[in-house]
TrEMBL record:
Protein name as it appears in the record: PLP-dependent aminotransferase family protein
Annotated family: In the C-terminal section; belongs to the class-I pyridoxal-phosphate-dependent aminotransferase family.
Taxonomic path: Bacteria, Bacillati, Actinomycetota, Actinomycetes, Micrococcales
Molecular function GO labels: DNA binding; DNA-binding transcription factor activity; transaminase activity
PANTHER family: HTH-TYPE TRANSCRIPTIONAL REGULATORY PROTEIN GABR
InterPro entries assigned: HTH_trans_reg/aminotransferase (IPR051446), PyrdxlP-dep_Trfase (IPR015424), PyrdxlP-dep_Trfase_major (IPR015421), Tscrpt_reg_HTH_GntR (IPR000524), WH-like_DNA-bd_sf (IPR036388), WH_DNA-bd_sf (IPR036390)
Any Pfam family the entry gives: GntR
Keywords carried by this UniProt record: Aminotransferase, DNA-binding, Pyridoxal phosphate, Transcription, Transcription regulation, Transferase
Start and end residues of each HTH gntR-type domain: 23-91
Region (Disordered): 98-130
Basic and acidic residues composition-biased segments: 115-130
Residues that span the membrane, as ranges: none
Length: 475
């Protein structure tokens, strides 16, 4: 206590040092004594309490005090003497006696709550780093020499991806047409650096992350709010060099583009000389294996003279913690991208590529996808039994709850406050189009019990934000 400075030197037993358990105790005592010296409450030549007495008064171990005193002696604040009291060094430099405002240390970034529930499309799901098959693949990768570095992707990894596409997507792909990337955005950057000039047509509504990845390009939106109308694309002829589409999970509902529309799109692109960029986002998240062929395969089977670039990522099943993806392209486009990637170097480390290859070859990823499909089936059952939720639209593999703008902001804010993250429906629209408001929920990201609780909470919150005369829906 500060009054201690008025006690006779021989009877001083304590010091005005606040103790908590937020940092190491010796560090707190060192900082406290430094502060007392700086403020003049301890002056050169003043004794400090013995380690035994100060430990007793502060409620810490004697060893803690001795560690602090030893550190202060090294720094020149204290002088220890044989068979005599420890004192503030009489020759303490005057610079240490002047009070200065010490800048506060930068605050550590806040970590998200441990029990954060992430229901945003493209996020969440179980942690791949805890998957025994994935951990085993990592160990195997560390024990195997990956060989010479191939900037396009290690040969074993490209072969494993080609086999994965054959089994999961029914695609016939030559491994030499595959370029390993660090995800969809990296794939787009690689494509644009390969000489694809001009504006890019984008879906409206569409995934916000895709537009962010193309923020440096001129983007022209085409309406897909009721499905892609290929006739409407004629307005883009002569204006765009390419169009980006997500035929297997169209925002926001997660619907699938019919095969007839896919053929019409490719036919139009061949006539207009437009490159089609197929983002195969979330293609694995289906109740059953898809029978709808990819645009890349369709273009080959129809023998159309059209450039199709197939972009895939494992982020939706392995999460963004394992940023790995791939591009499939043939002909001039493929050659141009291969040249750029060769000049840039590999997108991800060969060891990670080896781990991904081992995971694919062992069937670990297929089993993980199967677990995700079982979780989706269970989630569908929970939604069916949940009861009415105002504004709910369920037409695909995600849930959309439409509200007015204020209601959407309130839902986003209140769910975030409870550690639940969902996506904003309005973020999918671009330009000055007729934006719709609400939230988007990837309901298969969590187990059924968690989803049931979240939907009950949303029912309650939706009831609270309705007109006062409306009946409140209880969970």
């Amino acid at each position: 206590m500060s009054a201690a400075s008025s006690l006779p030197r021989s009877t001083r037993e304590s010091l005005d040092i606040a103790i908590d358990h937020g940092s190491p105790l010796p560090d707190q005592i060192v900082a406290g004594i430094r502060d007392l010296v700086t403020r003049g409450e301890l002056r050169p030549g003043d004794p400090v309490p013995s380690s035994r007495r100060l430990a007793g008064h502060l409620g810490v171990s004697r060893g803690t005090i001795e560690t602090a005193y030893a550190q202060l002696a090294v720094e020149g604040y204290l002088l220890t003497r044989e068979r005599a009291a420890t004192i503030v060094d009489p020759d303490l430099p005057t610079a240490l006696l002047r009070h200065t405002d010490v800048p506060a240390p930068p605050s550590a970034p806040q970590r998200p709550p441990r029990r954060l529930i992430d229901l945003r499309p493209g996020h969440g799901g179980d942690d791949p780093l805890r998957d025994p098959a994935f951990r085993r693949a990592w160990r195997e990768a560390l024990d195997v020499d990956p060989g010479a570095v191939d900037p396009l992707g290690q040969p074993g990894t490209r072969w494993a991806i080609a086999d994965h596409l054959r089994l999961l997507r029914g695609m016939s792909v030559d491994p030499r047409d595959i370029i390993v990337t660090s995800g969809s955005r990296d794939g787009l950057r690689l494509l644009f650096a390969s000489g694809l000039d001009g504006a890019i047509g984008v879906e409206n509504p569409g995934f916000p992350g895709l537009r962010l990845a193309m923020a440096d390009r001129e983007l022209l939106a085409f309406d897909v709010s009721t499905g892609l109308d290929v006739e409407g694309l004629t307005e883009l002829e002569g204006q765009v060099a390419a169009v980006v589409v997500t035929p297997n999970h169209q925002f926001p509902h997660g619907g699938t583009m019919p095969v007839s529309t896919r053929i019409a799109l490719l036919t139009w692109a061949a006539r207009a000389g437009v490159v089609v960029i197929e983002d195969d986002y979330d293609s694995e998240a289906r109740l059953q294996r898809t029978s709808v062929p990819t645009l890349f395969d369709l273009a080959g089977s129809l023998d159309l003279d059209v450039g199709v670039v197939h972009i895939g990522t494992f982020s939706t099943v392995l999460t963004t913690a394992v940023s790995t993806g791939y591009i499939v392209a043939r002909g001039r486009l493929g050659e141009a991208m291969s040249a750029v990637r060769t000049s840039w170097g590999p997108a991800i480390a060969p060891v990670l590529q080896s781990a991904i290859a081992a995971y694919l070859e062992s069937g670990g990823l297929r089993r993980r996808i199967a677990r995700g499909r079982r979780r989706l089936r269970a989630a569908e059952a929970v939604v069916a039994e949940a009861g009415a939720i105002p504004g709910l639209v369920h037409e695909g593999r995600t849930l959309v709850i439409e509200t007015d703008e204020d209601g959407a902001q309130a839902l986003l804010r209140e769910l975030e406050g409870r550690g639940i993250r969902v996506a904003s429906l309005a973020a999918g629209w671009s330009g000055d189009s007729a934006v719709r408001h609400g939230i988007v929920i990837a309901h298969s990201n969590v187990e059924a019990t968690v989803l049931r609780s979240v939907l009950g909470l949303i029912q309650t919150l939706s009831g609270e934000h309705r007109e006062p005369t409306a009946s409140r829906i209880e969970p």
